[in-house]
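User: Good morning. I'm curious how adenosine-5'-triphosphate would be positioned relative to this chain. Could you predict the structure with it bound?
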Amino acid sequence: MTEPVLIANQLNKTYLSTAGVQQEVLKNLSLSVDEGEFVAIMGPSGSGKSTLLNILSTLMQPSSGSVMINNKNILQMNDDAIAKFRGQDMGFIFQNYNLIESLTVQENISLPLTLQKVSPKKVKDAVQKVAQLLHIESYLNKYPTELSGGQQQRVGAARALVHNPTLIFGDEPTGALDSENAREMMNYLTQINDNEGISIVMVTHDAFSASFASRILFLTDGQITKTITRDNQSREVFYQRVLSELGNFN
Ligand SMILES: Nc1ncnc2c1ncn2[C@@H]1O[C@H](COP(=O)(O)OP(=O)(O)OP(=O)(O)O)[C@@H](O)[C@H]1O
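Assistant: Good morning! Here's the predicted structure, ligand included:
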């Protein structure tokens, strides 16, 4: 039986506006993600997707509720333990890549390992391996500004993967890509999910990207109002299903 890598229980999040008005953005939301699962989170703008992802990935605290990752309660860890945990167990892929312009591609990808004080030889080997997988070996010595958007996105993905995380979080990982690069990124995520058993939790508004997931959670007003699973359907058939579900929502 597969074990859950992530269990979120009864999450609530309330923001206080500058005018002092409280807004409940997540409402008693619970979910779990199994080892090796690929989960997409969809929903209308403002439904709480990014807030949920930020809480699941330790970047934000909920108002109440708990989050367990690999059997550890991440809300009870101190800042040092959280930083170490993020560095070792999690990978992040964002829409805007978050690459550091003054560092080369090689240095950007190395960052999670350098921060963990891994030996230079091991860092080099790990970067080579991930660069091969993502077909970016030829521009390891370039700077991010010399690359196209799709290339930068692949470098961001390489950095998310270089330390062998057990869980990858993506916030609109194909948001800035054209359709060809989006397809390539999703094929790549599918490959690491299938071959390395890395679990993926991804927020997207894009039906095409979501159709690569094995399960899709639809969020409305801070609650999961619908879940669909791909089971043994082809991606193409699942894509049609996602489109029709989105039609029901909009
Ligand atoms: N830091 C914050 N302070 C106050 N309100 C916030 C904050 N972050 C988000 N919100 C509000 O919480 C609600 C949910 O925002 P969130 O970004 O989680 O939604 P989303 O589903 O990811 O939206 P989108 O698809 O537009 O990115 C919105 O109404 C937003 O204005």
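The first strand starts at residue 4 and ends at 16. The domain at 36-50+79-249 is CATH 3.40.50.300 (Rossmann fold).
Let me know if you'd like a different ligand tried.
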